[in-house]
Amino acid sequence: MSSLLYRLGRFSAKYRWWVIAVWLVIVVAAGGIATARGGASNLEASYAIPGTPAQEALDVLGQRFPELSGASARIVVDAGDGADIADHSDVISTACEDLASLSAVKLVTCPFPMTASGSSASGSGDPSQISSDASMAFISVQLSSSTASNSVVAAAESAMKPVSDAGVKVAYSGLEATASSSSSTEYFGVGIAFLVLVITFGSFIAAGIPLITALLGVALASSAIYITASLAPVSQTAPLLATMLGLAVGIDYSLLITSRHRAQLRAGMNPRESVAVATATAGTAVVFAGITVMIALIGLSVAGIPFLTVMGLGAAVAVLGALAVAVTLLPALLAVFGGALRPRAPRRSRAVRTPKPPIWVRGVTAAPVAAIVLIIGLLGAAAIPAFGARLTLPDAGYDPPGSPARVAYDLLDEGFGPGFNGPLVITADISGTLDIEKALDALDAEFDGVANVAAVSKASPNEALDFAVLSVTPKSSPSSTATADLVSTLRDLAPAFEKENGFTFEVTGQTALGVDISARLSAALLPFGIVVVGLCLILLTIMFRSIAVPLSATVGYLLTVGGALGVTRLVFEMGFGASFIGVAKVGPVVSFMPILVMAVLFGLAMDYHVFLVSRMREQFFETGNARTAVLQGFSASARVVTAAALIMFSVFFSFVPGGSAAIQPIAFALAVGVLIDAFIVRMTFIPAVMALLGDRAWWVPKWLDRVLPNADIEGEVVQRMLRQRQWQSDDGSEEAGLWAEDLSVAGSTPASFRASERDVVIIGGDSAGGVVAAIAGRAADTAGNLSVQGRLIPFERSAVARESRFVPAVPDVPGGETVHERLRARIRESGHHRSERSALVAEAAETFDRLMVAVSDDLHSTIELTTLAGSLTDAQLWFLDVAAALAPSSRLVAIDATGKLPADAVLAVIVARARTDATLVVATTAGNAVTDRRVVTVTLSEHADTGMKGTRA
Q: What is the pTM of this model?
């Protein structure tokens, strides 16, 4: 990973203007497409979960009673305390008739008499739509579509304008324009983030770069979500969550890479090289952290809830965008500013002073047991309220006070009772009964006298007389526990009702749907938590090659989640400090808040854990002192992690004041969770645990260590490459054909040798074949230093492999090709022009004959170019491949001739037929070759020191 990121960072720095231009084109094009396809207007405000009882009943209702399939709205008219709304009956009736004439309106029910208009028939008015004190009334509007478009909202407001001009207060419920996906408070969070960056970097330029990259990443992710919304259902919450998360992680990821880049500039590294190294080292941790966040977000699909899956995917896209920007666009911007980002050199007295770790980390590592017990007790107590949390789907009562929908909600609550805003819909399939009137009477009588029922409407059949609908108005508010209990009570009545009447009923409506969704989400928390915790253990075990580190990280994550959810319930459900932060409504929180917070905090917790513990691991393997490693590793990363946590907190918390009911608790829980995780768990609890465990923190069973992949989170591969480049530069090995120092392949005995361009290198010994394969760029498992014609192995082995010809000891199994076709195919791979291939094939055929003669093969005279390669022995196939490798002009020819007898004769032919403009490397047990070229002989042994000598024959 680190070597790939190094090349990517180097490419972005080299072609910086092209990279910047491509990113700008992509962002602008995506924004243009999103706008052309409708942008935020395609987002949906409703939530649905297929398979729940309420949703299934709603689906049937839409099919059997299409008149009620569209959205319903209420327009509240309030004459004021002590006034009579009937005094304005004429203007209200006229407004009702105007509403009924709108093409998007199916039906209007007016509290006062109205004449026929549009799709609505004349009527004497419905007095039940007038409040008991006669000061207010409402108009029921049934739409033809499932949502109210902005044009419908504008037309309704125009129809109601005469009423408001008459001094009557008008409020709309269910006729709200599409919600905006942004808030001005976001800019405050971004401003705080910029201030933290300025303090951290001491530079306005360095502080501005992470903001630019984060905003571009969010813009791209938002456009992608809006484009998706034009093709499939997407919740209004999805772009808000993506914006919130994209800003936070985008700034943080850029901060970490930029911070590493500036530290390297301070040390004197070349700016362009520093960009590549920072992308490889800090970028590796960033990529891993981003992947963990995305896995957790995508893991929301475990719940089996479509809108939650879409939200998770949208947020994952935002994180992916932040990652892509951090490892491509950010390096390009850093390269543009070059040395201007170099920090000012500190005073000498400060430069030589070793920074002391903060006093609290020295304290917790000195008394780790006390610190661990205190933190577990504190966060355990904070988590207790989370176990009693109530969940709901937010309705208009959760909107900010003063908003149009909230005003209508409060007026209906005041004039008609708290349950009026959340009526339950009862549907019944009466197609199996012949006495329709009796069936309707049975439905009317079933719900009278049920506890917590305020009113029951008359059952109404559809046109086909095979389906009936009625509504039950609870006495309690839609989000109350009493209403959820009422839903269960009514459903419990259904079996007895069916036994008595021969048909049953279903309980549905938005309130019942919210109850079902909350129950489904609550049930999904445990399996999702198991998935997340399991991922935490697996990923961190791979990263740190330790058992204790992932276990402590998992415990810390659970403490973070528990504390964040507990504090959130105290504020949003129990009201502690709710007015101080502008909570829209104290009560149950949105149903998907806990599972979403668990997913996001998992990724963020792993971010901080990786950044801190990776430095501790690095220090431990350098010093061997566990406590010193904890203190030094903490000191090396605490400043950046502190800045990252403060930035994330600022961005998340900025979505709380003035935010929607769905976003407010999520943003608050994430903000609190970031503070808990960064400062209490990762920067206090984890150092205490690591200090308590000492050397045991890095123990892993040997069998597990062998099977775990190497994540290389500290960029060890790139650091090795930089050391080899320094070795290459210091020793001048870039000018040599071959230069090896302590080279070991797959654990072989180290070897050191040097050869110039066009030399013949003879390598003998137990590991000769592996060394030759490494020289040809065909082996990656190497240790030590190896430079091949100016290129470092294993980092540039692909380039070496392209420029060299290699013949392994065991030839490829032939297909149905002839000798001529095999030779021609091998020569074609060398890249020679078609016009040269016939001559090269002839030359290779002659070399093949000489090799066959050298081994006294009596059958060589019977092998023709038309002979099938499949009829040859392995030795003959190997001779054929050697001949094909020697014929073309190549900079390097590497041949593994181990086990090929007679070795001296085979080597003599190879050396004689090899081109003098190529470096020839042969693994063989033969002695020196007879040639006028310089011969370098290397002897490898598992039991003796490596020998190296050069001779000229």
A: 0.70
